[in-house]
Amino acid sequence: MIKNINLWLVLSILFSANISANILNKDIEYMVAKSAIKNEELGLYIKETKTNRVVSAINIDKLFTPASVIKVYSAYALLLELGYNYRWMTNFYIKGRFINGIVYGDLIVKGYGDPTLKSSDIPKIVNSLKAKGLKKINGDIIIDRSYFSVKSKDSSHFDKNIYSPYNAMPDAMMFNQHTSNFKLYPKNGRYVVEKLISGDSYKVSNQIKTVGGSCAGKRANPSISVSYASATPTLVLKGKLSNRCKKRYYKYIITKPYKEFYNALKNEFHKQGIKYNGRMRLSRVPSGAKKIFVHYSDRLENIIATTAKKSNNLFARHLLLTLGAKIYGAPSTIAKGRKAVERVLNRYHLLNYSKTCIDNGCGLSRSSKITSRSMAKVLDHAYKSYGDRWLNILSIAGKDGTIKRRFAQSVVKNRAWMKTGTLDRVKNIVGYVKAKTGTLYTVVILVNSKYSRWAGSALQNKIIKWLVDYKGVEDGNNIFFTPKEQREHKPLWDISDLIKEPKVFRYDEGDL
């Protein structure tokens, strides 16, 4: 009993003193020592969410590359500022006379960065415009994308998969998450490439040769690239493809999202009988234009849930830019977005300016840096502010998101709400774990190591599973070290030098 009281006193003093020492739980120390992860490659902070009782703290003020767990900062900052029910707008205006359903002038569309605007929204939008009496547009369609001031490149080029959706860059007039969709299917002895949105936003160069044999290996997938040699991008498909392959669909970064939006809108006008033969122009909403319709996105709560559960990089970029516009005014920039996230979170003293670099807000960055302490502060504040409603925004173990399969057959299933982050040499997981005792724990496990991919993930899984069965800090398994003592402390053993560097795997797109 006395031992437990003394332990709690030490724990309280350490926490109230801002935790300058490492706090090692004996079981966690054993798991770390047995893994291939070195102590300096690990930032770990586990505590009871509703109290200040710490289970384990290792390198909590050391900077680590966060990868996608940085999305927690952008998502929570926007939630604090705008609330669960915020919706993005896409405004429609007319400039000119509007008589008997005919616009003697232009239709103007202004995007405010709705990251979810997609093809299935277009028929609803056109129906709404028809309900306003629109029958014919004699002028052009003007698109105003000035709400964001971002670079013109379509892909972040973070890695070699430059056309993959996770590399898509933001735009105030976003559409279909900056991707173009097309299908490939055999017909009359050759392969046909068909755009799902017809129009001139990109060209197609189909160089596929049809061959016999099974649809396997090199005969199963064409080589796909995009040429930007001319003003209009060209989708290039090459290779030998088996005539036994079935129809398949592709989603790639090819052209500007506003061009795809324009073509989709124009096609739907023709489909629903609205006459239009103009062209697309980029310009700000002219003075005197009359607003006739507003399309609203889904609620912020659902969008940040998609951002977190599916680790959607484009959505995260839009969260950051939207907050930048709300705090510092349009046009928003990445710099404004970073400052806005820091400003909102630091109203509650959740970040350390000198030890946090948010960068682009999505995690596709080597410059982005956080500490496990700051992440734990954000997680604690989020739960205390929003409770279980916030938990369900994160991936639920064994149920959805990036940890659906990871803990599907585990004691952790339905007991953890987490955000993951993976890059080469980075494997992170943060969130909450509910033990069998009913105690909720805030968990931050950051691993930046050449063994992150496999050993880091294995270590995290073991710790999280162990935590589910954990009885609490009063079980006497916690030991404490000052930074000096920690440097001198020798773990039970370190097998990392005995293990060859594993094969390098490309990280999962949904985990970026």
Account of the protein in words:
The protein starts with a helix and ends in a 24-residue tail after the last helix. It contains 12 helices and 21 strands. Helix 3 (71-82) packs across helix 8 (334-346) and helix 7 (313-328) crosses helix 8. The protein has 3 domains: 19-84 and 302-511, Beta-lactamase (3-Layer(aba) Sandwich); 89-151 and 257-298, D-Ala-D-Ala carboxypeptidase C, peptidase S13 (D-tyrosyl-trna(Tyr) Deacylase, Chain: A, 3-Layer(bba) Sandwich), CATH 3.50.80; 180-252, no CATH class. The protein is of the alpha+beta class. Mean pLDDT is 90; it is low at 1-17 and 479-512. Strand 2 and strand 3 form a beta hairpin. Strands 4, 5, 6, 7, 14, 15 and 16 form a 7-stranded mixed β-sheet that branches. It has helices at residues 2-16, 26-34, 71-82, 122-131, 257-271, 300-309, 313-328, 334-346, 372-386, 388-391, 452-468, 483-488; strands at residues 22-25, 42-48, 54-58, 89-99, 102-111, 136-137, 141-144, 180-187, 190-195, 203-211, 223-227, 234-242, 248-252, 275-276, 280-282, 290-296, 395-396, 416-423, 426-434, 440-448, 478-481. This is D-alanyl-D-alanine carboxypeptidase. InterPro entries: Beta-lactam/transpept-like, Peptidase_S13. Keywords: Carboxypeptidase, Hydrolase, Protease.
